[in-house]
Amino acid sequence: MIAIITIGMASCNKTKKVSKRFIKPGEWKVTTLTVDGTAEAELPTWEIKDCDIYGSSCEGEWKNDEGGHSEFIWQFRDKGDTFEISRQAEEDGHGHTHDHAAEEAAAQCYNFSGVYEVVSSKKDEMEFKTTSALGYSGKEVIIKITKQ
């Protein structure tokens, strides 16, 4: 019984450690965003908000160079081996965002929402990959981010 509790605590601690590293409020620049090896023309920045990973959903903003942004929630699971990002609708009630830059950010954030494998997790740099991003199902998607 003690062994099971110890393993459970270690699992939570690893997930918490990875989340705390990422959770630090501030900007993370997406340095790589590829679909089946083809790079996206526009690389966003993620603005991570302060968060209590056990008390609420963790939030961020997907920002583009034109000033557009889209809200998303994120979480680490499976001892820090899985990362999930999910766009949160920011619409005006009629199904439309407010401007072209915001529409582009929202579309990109939606397309890259999904459950990712954590390939690497360092203090100022992380890499994720999946074949189940919402907009690119069945294609390999890679996201690399760097703390600004």
Structure description:
The protein has 148 residues and is an alpha+beta fold. It is built from two helices and nine strands, in the order H-E-E-E-E-E-E-H-E-E-E. It has an eight-stranded antiparallel barrel. Strand 7 (114-122) and strand 8 (125-130) form a beta hairpin.
What average pLDDT do the residues reach?
84
Instruction: List segments where confidence is low: pLDDT < 50 over at least 5 consecutive residues.
Output: 3-11, 92-97
Main sheet record: 8 strands, antiparallel, barrel
Strand content: 35-45%
User: How many angstroms does the end-to-end distance come to?
Assistant: 44 Å
Run of helices and strands: HEEEEEEHEEE
Descriptive key words:
2 helices; 148 residues; disordered N terminus; 9 strands; alpha+beta; eight-stranded antiparallel beta barrel; single chain
Question: Short description, anyone?
Answer:
This protein is α+β, with helices and mostly antiparallel strands.
Helix and strand arrangement:
Blueprint lengths: L1 H22 L2 E10 L2 E2 L5 E4 L9 E6 L5 E9 L4 E6 L12 H12 L2 E9 L2 E6 L10 E7 L1
Antiparallel strand pairs: 1-2, 1-3, 1-9, 3-4, 4-5, 5-6, 6-7, 7-8, 8-9
